[in-house]
């Protein structure tokens, strides 16, 4: 049961990779959690409003002083047939907030990022920071989970391809039992060449010398 006394309904666990896909139907992007072909919906009406950015961590990542008035896009989304999957809160830097379409709700996901790129910030690049934490009561209610279930918090920083500075920071909050992350490991340059044929002989000689 969740905190409101209603049955707690789980959805399937979803793998989360690292590919950002371009939408086929309308301009915009789909990020890893929502990159499949299934239809997602808004579980509450989406909101865009100017708010005080009081979180010093998010303010630092966006490159503004804490307390700055910042355009905030608030969404609770997920597949049509499932409980809410994620809360996403986007903070848009004041220098790009007035670009037409950035504060509007378009038919396709990520349309506002397309608007930023069309206004001269192509190509946007992204970096993510992942951490586990406990949800607030409000977050748990929006995700329809108990307050004792940890969430995965993903903070995405979008950087302008024009001036190399942040244009947006988006927080994703996902119930921890609904997601698993997938990471491709990359070899350091010291580990890219094949092992030499004599490496075992050299190792044996070193051990013999040490004894």
Condensed summary:
The protein is of the alpha+beta class. It is 18% helix and 32% strand. It has one domain (14-210): Chorismate lyase (3-Layer(aba) Sandwich), CATH 3.40.1410.10.
Q: What descriptors fit this protein?
A:
disordered N terminus; single chain; 11 strands; two-stranded parallel ribbon; 211 residues; 4 helices; Chorismate lyase; 32% strand; alpha+beta
Distance between the termini: 64 Å
CATH fold-level name: Chorismate lyase
From the alpha carbons, calculate the radius of gyration and give it in angstroms: 22 Å
Low-confidence stretches: 1-8
CATH superfamily: Chorismate lyase-like
Number of helices: 4
- What is the residue-averaged pLDDT? 87
- Helical fraction equals 10-25%
**CATH class designation:** Alpha Beta
Strand content: 25-35%
Order of helices and strands: EEEEEHEEHEHEEEH
* Overall CATH architecture: 3-Layer(aba) Sandwich
Q: Helix- and strand-based class?
A: alpha+beta
| Gross morphology | globular
Number of strands: 11
Describe the structure.
The protein is an alpha+beta fold and 211 residues long. The chain has a single domain (14-210), classed as Chorismate lyase-like (Chorismate lyase, 3-Layer(aba) Sandwich). Helix content is 18%, strand content 32%. It has four helices and eleven strands, in the order E-E-E-E-E-H-E-E-H-E-H-E-E-E-H. The chain has helices spanning 56-62, 111-121, 137-143, 199-210; strands at residues 14-16, 21-22, 29-30, 40-42, 47-53, 68-79, 86-92, 125-133, 151-159, 166-175, 179-181. Strands 4, 5, 6, 7, 8, 9 and 10 form a seven-stranded antiparallel β-sheet that branches. The protein has a two-stranded parallel ribbon with strand order 1-11. The chain has a two-stranded antiparallel ribbon with strand order 2-3. Strand 2 and strand 3 (29-30) form a beta hairpin. The longest helix has 12 residues, at 199-210. It is globular, with a radius of gyration of 22 Å. The protein starts with 13 loop residues before the first strand and ends with a helix. Residues 41-180 form the UbiC transcription regulator-associated domain. Residues 11-24 have a biased composition (Basic residues). One of its GO terms (biological process) is negative regulation of DNA-templated transcription. Residues 1-10 have a biased composition (Low complexity).
């Amino acid at each position: 049961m969740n905190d409101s006394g209603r049955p707690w309904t789980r959805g399937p666990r979803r793998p989360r990779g690292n590919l950002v896909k371009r939408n086929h139907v309308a301009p915009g992007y789909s990020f890893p959690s929502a990159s499949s072909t299934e239809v997602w919906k808004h579980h509450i009406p989406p909101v865009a409003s100017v708010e005080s950015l009081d979180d010093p961590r998010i303010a630092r990542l966006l490159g503004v002083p804490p307390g700055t008035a910042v355009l905030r896009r608030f969404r609770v989304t997920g597949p049509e047939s499932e409980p809410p999957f994620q809360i996403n809160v986007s903070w848009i830097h004041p220098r790009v907030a007035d670009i037409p379409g950035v504060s509007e709700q378009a038919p396709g996901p990520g349309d506002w990022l397309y608007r930023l790129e069309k206004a001269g910030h192509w190509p946007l690049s992204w970096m993510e920071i992942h951490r586990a934490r406990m949800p607030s009561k409000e977050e748990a209610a929006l995700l329809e989970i108990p307050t004792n279930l940890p969430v995965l918090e993903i903070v995405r920083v979008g950087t302008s391809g024009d001036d190399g500075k942040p244009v947006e920071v988006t927080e994703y909050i996902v119930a921890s039992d609904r997601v698993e992350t997938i990471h491709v490991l990359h070899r350091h340059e010291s580990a890219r060449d094949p092992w030499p044929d004599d490496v075992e002989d050299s190792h044996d000689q070193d051990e013999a010398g040490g004894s």
